[in-house]
Amino acid sequence: MHFSIFSKFAVSLSALSIFVAVIGDANAASLKKPAVQVRKVSLQQQDAGEFANFAQWKEVSDFLDQMAAKHEFDRTELEATLGKVQYVDRAIQLMKPAPPGRPKNWQAYRARFIDPVRIAAGVAFWDEHADALARAETQFGVPADIIVGIIGVETVYGRNTGNFRVMDAVTTLAFAYPDTPNRSARMRYFRGELENTLLFARESAIDPFSLLGSYAGAIGWPQFMPGSIRRFAVDFNNDGKIDLRDSPVDAIGSVANFLVQHGWKSGEPTAFPVSVAADSNIWEAFIGQGLEAKFTLEELKAAGVSPAMELPSDMPYGLVDLQNGLEPTEYWLGTNNFFAITKYNRSFFYAMSVIDLGRAVRTARSR
Predict the structure, then answer these.
(1) CA of 60: how far to CAs of 35, 134, 256, 301, in Å?
(2) Which residues does 316 contact at the CB level (< 8 Å), separation at least 6?
(3) What separation in angstroms does the CA of 55 have from each of 51, 63, 87, 269?
(4) pLDDT, tens digit (0-9, with 9 covering 90-100), for 105-142
(5) Taking the CB of residue 251, how many other CB atoms lie within 10 A of it?
(6) Which of these is catalytic: 59, 137, 154, 195?
(7) SS3 content of the chain, % helix, strand, coil (to 5)
(8) Is the dihedral of CA 293, 298, 302, 307 positive or negative?
(9) Are 25 and 363 in contact (CB under 8 A)?
(10) Is the separation of the CB atoms in 102 and 133 below 8 Å?
(11) Averaged pLDDT, 291-304
């Protein structure tokens, strides 16, 4: 889903994972006018549950004006299209943040993705698409096990790609986001994804309502958001079109290209286990420093971080904490490649589950 925008421990776009929430302000429960009368009423004055005709909303009207001016859409036709969109309360509920108080637990999260069913499906996927995976590894420098890990975490190799109409999901999220601190930013993000959905449908000559995906609007085997499809997806089976819904080969190449475009470096490792000093808290300053590798091995060691093995000293690292509820936290040093995976979903848990699933599939396949 790549939306990427979620907290460090957000779930993946398919789990949904990735990225974001929905509709609404219920300020005007007293507003009982028919939907057709609310064109000049702002979203903040509407109850989204009552007024589900998005084409009548002022913010949507402004969006239609922008699309017509910027991309030369026929405004009347576009208004008719938005008039068919349905408000998705389920997307809203799924996007709301989890209630506070429940501790994050890496081992519980991991168990959801590294399981016998998913590993067996990964082996079958790798066997069937070994040539495409090898070609992606050669062309992009991304190991097959990382690609297999991502597609497995996202959709169990195409089994769970989502059944929400993308137009419904992204429109709901674009104009009706829960009352959270990042509400405005999330709504802007999804308005961009609505724009990309319409552009992608026009470029591909398809009905935008034919696109099905996650409750956040992520599409196909790799759960790309519409904007990511337009920027990073590739025609890897060379059939003249990009199809992430029905072509696992296109999904393989697109995942690899996404990672390269987000900093993947061929030949580099991903993460190394470390321990941290118990008699000092200097190392804590390296926690929560963004999704990037930017510290030298020397300064991390000086702060009390001890690698479990000899590590390359000529690359940057970031300190990764995987909290285990009431059990001790696991600590790792992530490389550029680890953080490239977090650009797919902004979560340490997600990145490590991708690595572990890919490794487990590779091991099972070699038996």
Answers:
(1) 13, 45, 35, 53
(2) 293, 294, 295, 296, 335, 336
(3) 10, 10, 11, 49
(4) 999 999 999 999 999 999 999 999 999 999 999 999 99
(5) 32
(6) 154
(7) 50, 10, 45
(8) positive
(9) no
(10) no
(11) 97
Q: What are phi and psi of 95, to 5 degrees?
A: -85, -15
- Give the tokens for residue 64: 């239609």
Q: Which amino acid is at 150?
A: I
Cβ atoms 19, 227 nearer than 8 A:
no
What is residue 3's predicted lDDT score, i.e. its pLDDT? 46
Asked if residue 157 has pLDDT above 70, the reply is yes
Residue 30 is predicted with a pLDDT of 29
Quick check: is 154 catalytic?
A: yes
Residue 298 is predicted with a pLDDT of: 97
pLDDT at 35: 34
Answer whether 0.70 is exceeded by the pTM. yes
Q: Is the dihedral of CA 45, 48, 50, 56 positive or negative?
A: positive
Q: Could you tell me the two tokens for 18? A: 């990735």
**Cα–Cα distance for residue pair 281/279, rounded to 1 Å:** 7
Does residue 342 contact residue 323 with C-beta atoms inside 8 Å? no
- Domains of the chain in start order, with CATH, are 35-97+163-213 (1.10.8.350)
pLDDT tens-place string over residues 7-47: 333 333 333 333 333 333 333 332 232 333 333 333 443 44
Structure-token pair, residue 22: 């929905």
For residues 328 and 309, what is the distance between their CA atoms, to the nearest angstrom? 20
Q: Is the pLDDT of residue 218 over 50?
A: yes
